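In the design runs reported in the main text, the only information available to the sequence generator was the tokenized backbone. The following block is the verbatim input for one such run; it is reproduced so that readers can re-run the procedure and compare outputs position by position.
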């Protein structure tokens, strides 16, 4: 379908979307639009197998920091938390170009999840660009109902850019680029429906500012 609708800026915006379901387990959605800040392409692919799930999404959109940080990977199983999105510090709208991907495999004795995203963010108030990258690998063995544990290995690379204004000082460009490996191990003991105890260990190897 195709739509035309007014926006705050002069002119019109349009978008066109094609949805294709080649099988009950597979869905594909491809779209293109045009708004006052440029083109807005979108691609969503998902496949649900008996023991695995795969999802891939790409989009360019106008959004806000609060929406980026709370957005999850669409269609991803809810028992695998995947909301871990950084965003540049601004109250102005953000033009974001984003690629998300995720894969889950469930075996009889364990489950394995791999997620990742790449986000280019441009502040509309000053035009500064930032890049954020994420890859997460999570392992969950199937134990007893009383005892559970999980292990997570993550890689992060943040390259936020901007202009820092201070009183009585000239504008200063800053670069807070960082790269980090993070390992997290969590064990939980459940006593009943109302009471449980958990213990977590976290190791971070960070380089940069």
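Verbatim output:
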């Amino acid at each position: 379908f195709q739509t035309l609708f007014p926006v705050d800026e002069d002119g019109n915006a349009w978008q066109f979307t094609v949805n294709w379901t080649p099988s009950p387990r597979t869905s594909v959605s491809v779209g293109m639009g045009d708004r006052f800040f440029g083109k807005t392409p979108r691609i969503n692919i998902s496949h649900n197998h008996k023991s695995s799930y795969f999802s891939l999404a790409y989009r360019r959109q106008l959004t806000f920091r609060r929406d980026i940080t709370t957005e999850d990977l669409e269609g991803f199983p809810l028992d695998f938390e995947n909301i871990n999105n950084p965003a540049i510090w601004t109250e102005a709208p953000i033009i974001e170009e984003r690629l998300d991907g995720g894969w889950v495999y469930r075996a009889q004795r364990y489950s394995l999840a791999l997620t990742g995203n790449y986000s280019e963010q441009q502040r509309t108030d000053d035009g500064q660009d930032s890049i954020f990258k994420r890859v997460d690998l999570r392992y969950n063995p199937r134990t007893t109902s009383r005892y559970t544990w999980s292990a997570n290995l993550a890689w992060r690379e943040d390259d936020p850019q901007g202009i820092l204004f201070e009183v009585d000082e000239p504008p200063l460009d800053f670069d807070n680029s960082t790269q980090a490996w993070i390992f997290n191990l969590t064990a939980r003991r459940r006593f009943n429906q109302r009471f449980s105890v958990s213990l977590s260990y976290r190791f971070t190897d960070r380089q940069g500012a």
